[in-house]
Write a structure and sequence with these properties.
- The chain is mostly beta strands and about 575 residues long.
- About 0% of the residues lie in helices and about 35% in strands.
- It is built from 1 helix and 41 strands.
- The longest helix has 8 residues.
């Protein structure tokens, strides 16, 4: 990972960790505030380790014209294969492009695996990458990059090593929580894009063939109620009619198939249930035609990092799954993944009793990689580990010292000593920029809108009073599946509540929802972001024995059954 220029100094001290850990409740001011400010620390980068293995299904040298669905009742015997959307090496098959835990984008083809360059700002981490296909007919796939603040850009394909600098950019795409390249939905031979709002409204953006100007026609609303799905997978052409098709999964694990119609006003026929149990996978990924029969297939990844191919029959169902490789937990973002993308935090800090800071990053398996020491002499420091306040997608190590708030080498300002809790759950105002919540000792909560650079905030917006009823406020992303940042609050009696985000600064939260009681069993609570690779924010707690437990989000505002991660965590004064 290249060194970051602009914030190098401040990041070294403040971000001291590539942390994305959960915004933890800041500790109250202590006598140690009279000590000198802590010195900067080197910011580590996650290590990807060995690249994953890919096991392709048997297939001919060139895509076949014959359907594997031949003999399946209701399936056509002959198909006209849709063009692959992400064929970077020109062999007629789509390739797998993903961003690793280390932040580097890679491509995996049938012959090799190597870095795949998305030309742009090298210090920006895109929130999502979308592959609509070859839009200008030059045989090279285009890539759409989406920033956290909602700028969508088109990068023209150059070679199997990557795509060029953006030739078009448009703003305003932050209103959507999911963008899906579903293949050709209008029958003109070009790949189109679907966009879903947090409210569940679905829009179709048909492409017009342009790559140096706006590539989309005006968005057309094509449906409501799509918020019931936690994964939308544009599978290209599954039925062999040349029209793009879609799979959709509910949080309960039900998978549905939507056949494309070719009609822009009504792009899908009625849904057909494929099966249950698909919530056993943390990501479902589109791979187009993997076996050469001309039908779009999908891949599903387990939490352990194994992937399985599901080869299409031509009618929306699948043949028996086959193994596709291992080690894919190293992928933090797949191009073509079905889940909502997350941004801002995927790490955790621990401050031990000796004042040492340790950094943990998740491996997308529900576990953390081995800790790394990133600082000394932090004992008694009043710190907060907030979700990213700029465009790099990394958490911010902030310190409140003698009433002045610092973000690394940036001095945010004076007067922050009136607050006894600072929390950075992510973007709460809908502009894609990370924000900060601050609570006074009297229980009044304020929202500080970030400026997107990590060095300042707008004037505070009063959220309301009565927040002193809680002894812990944490958050790092989305807990209820709508793609908006939320907040968790634990009462003094041990009840945990969810405050769903609205994306509106003047009223950032909906009415609270009860998650459950008994949470006082945990001496420490932290929100490290997504631990298990499904894009949903998770939660961890340490009990009196020092055991760490993981609570994986279901994407419905609830958590699954707790899972013990390990012991020995009593060595930490706090987790962030």
């Amino acid at each position: 990972m290249p060194a970051r220029s602009k914030r190098a100094g401040r990041i070294a001290a403040c971000t001291a960790l590539v942390l994305s850990a959960g915004m933890l409740l800041a500790a109250p001011a202590s006598a140690d505030d009279t000590a000198p400010r802590r010195t900067a620390v080197e910011q580590p980068a996650p290590a990807i380790g060995a690249l994953p293995s890919l096991s392709l299904p048997e297939r001919p040298a060139h895509p076949a014209k014959k359907s594997a669905a031949a003999g399946v009742e209701g399936a056509a015997a002959a198909v006209v294969p849709a063009k692959p959307r992400l064929d970077v090496d020109g062999d007629g098959y789509s390739d797998t492009v993903y961003r690793g835990i280390d932040g580097v984008v890679y491509v995996s083809t049938s012959a090799a695996e190597h870095e795949y360059t998305i030309n742009g700002d090298p210090y920006e981490q895109y929130k999502d990458l979308v592959a609509p296909g070859d839009l200008n007919g030059d045989g090279k796939p285009e890539i759409l990059s989406l920033t956290a603040t909602g700028t969508l850009s088109l990068h023209q394909g150059e070679s199997e090593n990557g795509v060029g600098y953006a030739t078009w950019s448009g703003k305003g795409w932050a209103m959507y929580n999911k963008l899906v390249a579903a293949g050709d939905l209008t029958g003109d031979g070009r790949g189109d894009v679907l966009a879903r709002k947090p409210s569940g409204e679905l829009y179709l953006y048909a492409t017009n063939g342009a790559v140096n100007s706006n590539p989309f026609r005006s968005g057309v609303k094509v449906g409501n109620g799509w918020g019931v799905y936690d994964q939308l997978v544009g599978a290209n052409d599954v039925t062999g009619d040349g029209i793009g098709d879609l799979f959709a999964r509910t949080p309960a694990g039900e998978l549905y198939f939507y056949a494309g119609t070719g009609n822009a006003a009504k792009p899908f026929a009625g849904r057909v249930k494929v099966g249950n149990g698909w919530n056993g996978y943390n990501q479902i990924i589109s791979v187009d035609d993997a076996n050469g029969d001309g039908l779009g297939d999908i891949v599903a990844r387990t939490t352990a990092g194994a992937v399985y191919y599901y080869e299409s029959t031509g009618v929306g169902s699948f043949l028996t799954r086959s193994g596709g490789g291992t080690g894919w937990n190293v992928a933090s973002l797949f191009v073509g993944a079905g889940g909502n993308p997350d941004f801002g935090k995927n790490e955790m800090l621990g401050l031990d009793t000796k004042g040492n800071l340790y950094w943990y990053y998740p491996t997308n398996t529900g576990l953390f990689a081995a800790r790394q020491q990133v600082g000394k002499n932090w004992g008694g420091a009043n710190i907060t580990f907030a979700s990213s306040l700029d465009y790099d997608g990394r958490a911010e190590l902030m310190e409140l010292y003698a009433g002045t708030l610092y973000n690394g080498d940036y001095t945010i300002g004076k007067g922050w000593g009136v607050y006894n809790s600072l929390v950075g759950p992510g973007d709460l105002s809908g502009d894609g920029k990370g924000d900060l919540l601050a609570r006074t000792s009297g229980g009044t909560l304020y929202l500080y809108r970030g400026n997107g650079a990590g060095n300042g905030f707008a004037s505070p917006v009063k959220v309301g009073g009565g927040w002193d009823a809680y002894n812990k406020l944490v958050g790092a992303g989305d807990y209820n599946g709508d793609g908006l940042a939320d907040l968790l609050a634990r009462s003094k009696g041990g009840t945990l509540y969810l405050y769903p985000g609205t994306g509106v600064a003047s009223k950032p939260f909906k009415a609270r929802l009860t998650i459950g009681g008994g949470w006082n069993t945990y001496k420490k609570l932290a929100a490290p972001g997504d631990i298990n690779g499904d894009g949903k924010a998770d939660l961890v707690g340490v009990d009196a024995k020092g055991d760490l437990y993981r609570y994986a989000s279901t994407g419905t505002g609830k958590f699954g059954a707790r899972a013990r991660v390990g012991g020995g965590w009593a060595t930490y004064v706090n987790l962030y």
